[in-house]
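Please check this protein record:
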Amino acid sequence: QAAVDETYKQVTGRIEYLIRKFNWAPEELYTVAQKMTFEDFNKKADKFLKEIHVDVLIMGNVEKSKAKEYAKMIEENLNYEGVAKKDIPENSAVKLVDHNYVWREFNNDAKKVEHCVCNTYQIGQMSVPNYAMTKLVEFLFSNDAYTYLRTEKNLGYIVFFMPTSYSDVLHLLILAQGSQLNPHKMDKEIELFIKNRLLKNLDELTDEEFNGSKISLKNTLKAKDNTLKDKGQRYTTRIRERTYIFNLRQKVIDYLPRITKANFKNFVKTLFETPAKLSVQFYQYESEDAKIPKELLEKDDEVCGKEPVLLEDKSKLDSLPRYPVKIDVDV
């Protein structure tokens, strides 16, 4: 399944694999599965659902008493031995602070002719101030990123500029997928966009533009979910991250008036000028045994100021400190 995914999905999956403690690459899972016998599977199947922790999300036109009844029914039918939250292994995120790492590989599908690069800039532990600042960054600069990377520089037809979180740690992703430039050059164009467009626009940001953006973001966050699916995705994200902050949008709305232009500028400059950066780069397929030449790794001095380190496996990241997993129940 992973092999047939869109290239950008493979790239973002690789980022999650590198950042999160308990995460395995599709090829690692495939290798283990190939060695597993039917007898092995049967032995593990009985135990598999015995020791689990269950969070049940029930939405729609249903009363609270009925929802509790359905949740109890699900738990009884699973016939499992519950695991307390405190006993769940902490799937922590690696601290990229003051590091600039690059992961490169060839796409293993000859039918995929696109290159793809995704730069993730790590912000820190998920919190209302961090999330509010990052949403404001997205609101102010995502259109610029799309215009510069897709239209002006023709990096590709798929461009993302958005916040995301891994194990309750916030990141800003800038992604481009296309066939015109190789990922090394795409990474450089992203850094040039930050230096020559984003930071320049930040310096020229007027009080009127800044305050207007805060009002517009507030109105966007106040909008109701369009579908039950949208609402479900919002809830499951908070459950998956184990924060349970289902009213995060309202918390951001309440926090926005506290953001000044001065502290916003400081947040953005810290994020990009002294980044905690991981760049995952997929090259289009060449051959089964193709290798990325190490000489492609050149000093990235456009914005970062930190010479990048080429990752050959996950061990270098595994040796770094990790963020503590914070469980913040707010329901």
Summary: The first strand starts at residue 51 and ends at 52. The two ends are 35 Å apart (CA to CA).
